[in-house]
């Protein structure tokens, strides 16, 4: 190291110290520069040893991510392909929107037939399957069809409009195509809702008596309505006689010896005879 003033000139390879500027210049010598260059070029610093655990884990994770992305891209491409194929198929074969359509138990060809000219759908009596006679309902249905009662195909198509509640539910369960003609429907319907009706006999009429406090005219009407359901062929005069025999004593005594053979006569006598009316009022 050499200390000099500001006027002195020093070689670049020397160290100098300026008292005026208070600076210290340090410049390495040529040998030092050569050794530094050799160390930097010929013997570069080696990186620190790597940790195998820190290398493998990120690599495996990247591989899994890449494989997952490739699989997802493949599935997405396949889905897009299928959608394009479906769209192309729809364009080739456009379909009308399907509505709920229940197939009837008869041939669907009947649905294609138009109604007869000037035909007006009648107002049908309804059968619910809980009460009433199936045979009576068929008779009412045929009567409602009027001039078209002989059109079996039309009757077959219109019959469901006369059903309600439980009976209509039964109708909807009939297999499609199971009914060929109108007669088949009548047979199925009557077989399903056949009811063993109680038959009114003369024995039933003999136990149909006027009760205490019952109006005479009301009793006669009640007895006559029951006698109408009597399937045996009894003469009306015989039934009128049973009706009089079943009256209370005070009424029976006034009507027993009268020549009455019809219910209309019996009702007229009962309403016109003042003695009968007075007895009826006393009983009430």
Molecular structure report:
It is elongated and about 170 Å long. 12% of the residues are buried. Helices cover 51% and strands 3% of the residues. Mean pLDDT is 78; it is low at 1-8 and 12-26. It has 12 helices and 3 strands; from the N terminus they run E-E-E-H-H-H-H-H-H-H-H-H-H-H-H. It has helices at residues 30-41, 52-92, 134-145, 152-158, 165-172, 182-192, 202-206, 216-228, 236-245, 249-255, 263-272, 274-283, and strands at residues 2-4, 16-18, 23-25. A 3-stranded mixed sheet has the order 1-2-3, with no helix packed on it. It starts with a strand and ends with a helix. By secondary structure, the protein is mainly alpha-helical. The longest helix has 41 residues, at 52-92. The protein folds into 3 domains: 2-40, no CATH class; 108-192, no CATH class; 202-283. It comes from Fagus sylvatica (Beechnut). This is Retrotransposon gag domain-containing protein.
């Amino acid at each position: 190291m050499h200390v000099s003033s500001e006027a002195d000139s020093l070689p670049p390879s020397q160290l100098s110290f300026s008292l005026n500027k208070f600076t210290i210049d340090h410049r390495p010598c040529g040998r030092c520069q050569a050794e530094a260059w050799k160390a930097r070029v010929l013997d570069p610093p080696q990186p620190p040893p790597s940790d195998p655990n820190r290398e493998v884990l990120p690599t495996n994770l990247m591989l899994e991510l890449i494989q997952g992305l490739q699989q997802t891209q493949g599935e997405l491409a396949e889905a897009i392909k299928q959608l394009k194929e479906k769209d192309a198929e729809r364009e080739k074969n456009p379909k009308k929107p399907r509505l709920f359509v229940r197939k009837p138990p008869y041939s669907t060809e009947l649905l294609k037939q138009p109604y007869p000219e000037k035909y007006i759908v009648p107002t049908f009596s309804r059968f619910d399957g809980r009460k009433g006679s199936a045979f009576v309902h068929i008779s009412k249905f045929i009567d409602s069809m009027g001039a078209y009662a002989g059109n079996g195909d039309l009757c077959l198509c219109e019959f469901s409009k006369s059903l309600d509640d439980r009976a209509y539910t039964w109708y909807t369960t009939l297999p499609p195509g199971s009914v060929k003609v109108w007669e088949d429907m009548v047979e199925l319907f009557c077989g399903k809702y056949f009811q063993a009706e109680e038959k009114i006999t003369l024995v039933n009429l003999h136990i149909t008596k006027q009760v205490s406090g019952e109006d005479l005219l009301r009793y006669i009407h009640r007895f006559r309505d029951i006698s109408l359901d009597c399937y045996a062929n009894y003469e009306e005069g015989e039934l009128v006689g049973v009706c009089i025999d079943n009256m209370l004593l005070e009424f029976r005594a006034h009507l027993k010896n009268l020549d009455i053979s019809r219910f209309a006569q019996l009702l007229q006598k009962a309403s016109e005879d003042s003695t009968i009316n007075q007895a009826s009022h006393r009983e009430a």
